[in-house]
């Protein structure tokens, strides 16, 4: 395979553009109970949280090998993690909602667009090859891919792309039907974190206490979703059509 | 759109630029001497996005305070 790290930047740009276009279209199609200003502020909060979360978790991920330094968050080199971005963005939106006095769930509109955005981005991860740390462990399966070092590996980026496109389709359809507010987003988060927890066993990541740092973050996120569901059961939730 | 909308958009745009610039810097580093263009572009983007990000945060805080007082 002819890998080139430049593809990562190209597809990352397309991912943001594609995800945003789908969000705009879904919002116009399905309507929104938040005002445009409130929606921009929650997205800005998500961006701040995602930026911090994706960097911090990426640095933590490499910490078992090279130690953790806060200054690395703003260093030019180094990666980003989607799990950190999702968890950081989610936390920041909840904080912003608290400040703005928004009590309703606001995430359903983002579920399918994030899936599509990440799926597009994963094409870039795949085409970047070994320079991107998202490839899988060696395999003898017929669809194993040689990223340039002569070893056939699990194309975990493509597994994730297929999973996310399927999930996006299901969530997008569900979001158009009657459902409890926020449920679509929470199902998305739980599905993605559960998926990442499992698929990361196929990645040669540094391990801490038996699991990769991203897998530990997935478990924390899944616990947060479960606690949210328990809390939701104790209070009435609005339904949308 | 209310007073907090524009700074919120500035924050979003600068955050996306920050993430893309980090990617460009990584690309520049990984390609050694051949990646000088990507590295310079990434560093310039990184600097600009940090400046815009800080301006956006300050603007948003001011807009939120003004909006709360006028209410």
Q: How is this structure best summarized?
A:
Chain A is mainly alpha-helical and 241 residues long. Chain A contains seven helices and six strands.
Decide which structural class fits the backbone of chain B. mainly alpha
Helix content of chain B: over 70%
Q: Helix content range of the residues of chain A, please?
A: 55-70%
The assigned structural class of chain A equals mainly alpha
- As a percent range, the share of strand residues of chain A is under 5%
Residue windows where pLDDT falls under 50 for at least 5 positions of chain B: none
State the distance separating the first and last CA atoms of chain B: 16 Å
Notes on the protein architecture:
- The complex is a heterodimer of chains A (241) and B (71).
- Chain A has one domain.
- Chain A contains seven helices and six strands.
- Chain A has helices at 6-30, 36-66, 82-100, 108-128, 156-175, 183-199, 213-233; strands at residues 145-146, 152-153, 179-180, 207-208, 211-212, 239-240.
- With 71 residues, chain B is mainly alpha-helical.
- Chain B has one domain.
- In chain B, 86% of the residues lie in helices and 0% in strands.
- In chain B, helix 1 (5-30) runs antiparallel to helix 2 (36-70).
- The radius of gyration of chain B is 16 Å and the shape is rod-shaped.
- The interface between A and B is medium-sized, with 28 and 34 residues.
Fold topology:
The complex is a heterodimer of chains A (241) and B (71).
Chain A (H helix, E strand, L loop, with lengths): L5 H25 L5 H31 L15 H19 L7 H21 L16 E2 L5 E2 L2 H20 L3 E2 L2 H17 L7 E2 L2 E2 H21 L5 E2 L1
Antiparallel strand pairs in A: 1-2, 3-6, 4-5
Helix pairs in contact in A: 1-4, 2-3, 4-5, 4-6, 5-6, 6-7
Chain B lengths: L4 H26 L5 H35 L1
Helix pairs in contact in B: 1-2
Structural descriptors:
heterodimer; A: 241 residues; mainly alpha; two-stranded antiparallel ribbon; B: 71 residues; 2 helices
């Amino acid at each position: 395979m002819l890998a080139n790290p430049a593809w990562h930047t190209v597809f990352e740009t397309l991912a943001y553009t594609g995800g945003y276009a789908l969000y705009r279209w879904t919002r116009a199609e399905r309507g929104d109970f938040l005002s445009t200003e409130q929606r921009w502020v929650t997205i800005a909060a998500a961006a701040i949280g995602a930026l911090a979360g994706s960097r911090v978790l990426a640095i933590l991920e490499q910490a078992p090998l090279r130690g953790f330094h806060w200054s690395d968050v703003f260093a030019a080199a180094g990666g980003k993690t989607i799990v950190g971005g999702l968890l950081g963005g989610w936390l920041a939106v909840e904080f912003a909602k608290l400040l703005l006095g928004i009590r309703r769930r606001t995430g359903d509109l983002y579920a399918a667009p994030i899936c599509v955005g990440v799926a597009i981005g994963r094409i870039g991860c795949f085409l970047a090859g070994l320079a991107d740390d998202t490839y899988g462990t060696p395999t003898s399966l017929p669809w194993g891919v040689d990223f340039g070092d002569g070893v056939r590996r699990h194309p975990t980026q493509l597994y994730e792309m297929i999973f996310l496109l399927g999930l996006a389709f299901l969530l997008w359809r569900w979001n158009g039907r009657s459902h409890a507010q926020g449920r679509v987003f929470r199902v998305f988060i739980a599905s993605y974190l559960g998926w990442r927890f499992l698929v990361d066993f196929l990645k040669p990541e540094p391990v801490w206490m038996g699991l990769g740092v991203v897998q530990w973050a997935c478990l924390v996120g899944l616990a947060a979703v479960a606690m949210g569901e328990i809390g939701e059961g104790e209070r009435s939730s609005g339904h949308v059509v | 759109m209310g007073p907090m909308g524009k700074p919120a958009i500035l924050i979003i745009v600068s955050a996306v630029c920050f993430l893309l610039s980090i990617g460009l810097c990584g690309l520049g580093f990984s390609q050694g001497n051949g990646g000088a263009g990507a590295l310079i572009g990434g560093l310039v983007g990184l600097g600009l996005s940090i400046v815009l990000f800080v301006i956006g945060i300050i603007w948003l805080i001011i807009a939120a305070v003004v909006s709360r007082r006028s209410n």
